[in-house]
Specification:
The protein is of the alpha+beta class and 201 residues long. The protein has 5 helices and 5 strands; from the N terminus they run H-H-E-E-H-H-E-E-H-E. It has a domain of 128 residues. A hairpin with a 2-residue loop joins strand 3 and strand 4. The protein is elongated. The protein starts with a helix and ends in a 21-residue tail after the last strand.
């Protein structure tokens, strides 16, 4: 009887340990997913904002958005943007107004001279498969019976959350995180963050 009781106690202890582990994993799993999600979302949104700044600057120089990352990167590396400084009051007819035009390299203005940041503009952050790129499209669309340039840069959520437990992002399967829109021509991002609107200027 003593041996049987010891075996039963051991089995109960093992069962209790297994159930405790399963409970721990059940609680830990969604927390781990959310932590990874927050980290990946932030990294991708930062890249999409860089793409948006680059596209808006490209359009100001070329009248349209870049249809490829090669064209976009080339512009960011080699082109300049003009800044006009006005000295005097343009509304005061008694004053002589002076306008001074200064050219600043885009790589210095937007990317602080960081060429690696430009070179990696098209690539997903390090959590993704090496060499995986954002999808980039640009074309003319019709909005309110007027043709306007539009672009869209995106990544499928299945790629964004690859390697994580799918049940926690099942509602996003088949969708993308994006900036810009080929439907309405906006340059907004579709993430839940309205505080970054100033980045579009």
């Amino acid at each position: 009887m003593t041996a049987i009781r010891l075996i039963l106690n051991l089995l109960l202890a093992l069962l209790a340990g297994y159930l405790s582990y399963q409970l721990y994993e059940t609680i830990k799993e969604p927390i781990d997913f959310n932590n990874a999600k927050v980290e990946r979302d932030a990294a991708v949104i930062s890249k999409l904002k860089d793409i948006r700044r680059s596209q808006v600057t490209y359009k100001s120089l070329n009248g349209k958005f870049a249809a490829s990352f090669d064209s976009l990167k080339l512009c960011m590396k080699n082109d300049s943007i003009e800044f006009i400084k006005i000295i005097g009051d343009p509304d005061d007819t008694t004053q002589v107004v002076e306008r001074i035009t200064t050219k600043i390299a885009i790589r210095d203005s937007i990317f602080k001279g960081n060429m690696q940041r430009i070179d990696s503009l098209s690539y997903l952050p390090s959590f993704a498969q090496r060499g995986k790129e954002f999808d980039l499209q640009a074309k003319m669309i019709t909005k309110n019976e007027i043709e306007i340039p539009a672009f869209e840069a995106s990544v499928p959520y299945e790629v964004l959350y690859d390697g994580l437990v799918e049940k926690y992002y099942a509602d996003k399967v088949g969708e993308v995180m994006r900036v810009g829109s080929l439907k309405d021509g906006s340059v907004s991002g579709n993430w839940d963050d309205a505080s970054d609107l100033k980045d579009k200027k």
